[in-house]
Amino acid sequence: MKKILSFSGAALLVAVTLAFSGCTREHKIAVVAHTGFWKCEQGGETSNSIASLTAAQDNAFWGSECDINLTADDVIVVAHGPKYKGMLLRENTYADSLKLLTLKNGEPVPTLDQYLDQLVKAKTVLVLELKKQLNEERENLMTDKAIEALKAHGVYDPKRVIFISFSHFICQKIAKEHPAFTNQYLSGDIAPADLKKEGINGIDYNYKVLHEHPEWIKEAQDLGMSVNVWTIDDEEKISEMIGLGVDQITTNEPLLTRELIRKLEKKELPVPKK
Ligand code: MG
After folding, report:
1. What domains are there in the chain, each with its CATH number?
2. Residues whose Cβ atom is located within 5 A of ion ligand 1
């Protein structure tokens, strides 16, 4: 049974009731623009840019994702890494070299502080990916400095920021030190129940993982965990994940995803069977 319950266009959320093995639950599907809404003129076709964050905010997507790395002089930059333009971020300083680099759209490589200056201008949720660093010491420092930056900008708030990471260590640290925040593990190699035992309260798994383990979606949600999926850009896969009832969809095609969710709300889209 699938039944539309309500719709909030501004927040791009649709409430769907799905029956899983006799267990019916209500939840919402949110759109996350992967590395910002970059595939548009405003976003400058430039991922992880302030322009792409601004475009995500202006288009009122629920969330906007970005990647952060720590430089040799302990500055957090918004960049996928580990290299940018051939330079290893962890081995180069922001002050002497990285700040001179520009993105495709001409912006300087943003620091997290510069990025947060834009974030605070609108309510779009920041999906902050803390990239794996060289060792746990550097991951610990980067996480602490990111938390400091969020506090300094007034967005140390579970309603404004969620954390994602491929680093099991970082997710464990956030679970221990910042348990009120949504904290989604990315690597796809641990069952939700095992993460839950450690206090990690979410998964953000690759499409292939959730396609092969759709039971993990229910397992996670039954444990009160959130489920995000990355990064799906084609209609078939997005529709499949809508049908499986994930909580968030991370995509480079947020407009398409929004439209597919709206079609579902209007019952124009047949929801794929599991
Ligand atoms: Mg990322």
Report:
1. 14-68+124-132+156-265 (3.20.20.190)
2. 67, 129
Instruction: Inform me whether the pLDDT recorded for 215 exceeds 90.
Output: yes
* DSSP one-letter string for 243-265: HHT-SEEEES-HHHHHHHHHHHH
Q: List beta partners, residue 164.
A: 129, 184
3-state secondary structure of 117: helix
Instruction: Categorize the per-residue pLDDT at 266 as very low, low, confident or very high, splitting at 50, 70 and 90.
Output: confident
The pLDDT value given to residue 272? 58
Instruction: Tell me the CA–centroid distance for residue 250 and ligand 1, in Å.
Output: 9
**Ligand 1 centre from 214 Cα, in Å?**
22
The alpha carbon of 67 and the centre of ligand 1 are apart by a number of angstroms equal to: 5
Output the CA 116–ligand 1 centroid distance in Å: 16
**How many A from CA of 267 to the centre of ligand 1?**
32
